[in-house]
Amino acid sequence: MIKTVVNEYLEALNWRYATKKFDAGRTLSEDQVEQLLEAVRLSASSYGLQPYKVLLVRDPEIRARLQPACWNQPQVTQASHLFVLASPTDFGGELIDTYLDEVAGSRGIPREGLSGYGDFMKSKLLGLSAQEKSEWAARQAYIALGNLLAAAAFLQIDTCPMEGFVPQQVDEILGLPEKGLTATLIIPAGYRSGEDATQHARKVRRPAAEMFISV
C-alpha cells in the first residue's frame, strides 16, 4: 500500500510541469482550493515559525492589473486561481511570541515553560538586519511553494511557479507595504489548455548520478 502511494506521488511529480497556457473555462472547486491551502499550512519551516502570508487573489480586475507587473504572462489571468506567497520585510519578537502562544495552547503546556526556547530563537533571528530577516523569511516561503506544487500535482491540478514579476509593482497593487510584506512568489493554478504545447515536452531533470553524492 505504501509503495503504491509513493509511486502515485512520484508519477504526479513527473506529470506536472510549469503550465504556460491555462484553460480559462475550467475552475477549481472550493474543496480543491482548501486542500492546496492546507498543504501550505502544513509545510515545514525553520523553527516552525512560518513567517510568510498567502494571498488568494480572486478579483479578476486585480489580476488584470497584476499581469503587466508579471511580465505580461497570460497565466496570471487565465488560471482558475492565483496564489501569492508574501514574506515580511522585517519582523520583531512578536513573530516568535505569537508562535509560542500557539504551541502552548495547542499542546496544553504552560507558556512560561517555553521561554528558554523563545529566547534561543530570538537570539538567532532578532539580531539579523532587516534585509537578512527578509531573505530568511523568503526561504521559508520557498519550502511552502514545494508543498503547494506537490499537492497540486497529486490532485492533478496544474501550476506555474513565477519569480518573473516586478515586486514593487505587485506589492503596490496588492497593498502589501502597509502590511509589512513583499511578494516572493506567484503561483497560478488551474487546468492546462489543450493548446499548451509545453505539456508534450519530455521532462528534463539532472541524472541521479550527477545529482546525488554518497559520503
UniProtKB/TrEMBL annotation:
Swiss-Prot/TrEMBL keywords: Flavoprotein, FMN, NADP, Oxidoreductase
Alphabetized CDD domains for the sequence: NfsB-like
Cofactor(s) needed: FMN
Pfam family, one: Nitroreductase
InterPro entries documented for this protein: NfsB-like, Nitroreductase, Nitroreductase-like
Stretches assigned to the Nitroreductase domain: 14-191
Taxonomic superkingdom: Bacteria
Protein family (similarity comment): Belongs to the nitroreductase family.
Protein name: NAD(P)H-dependent oxidoreductase
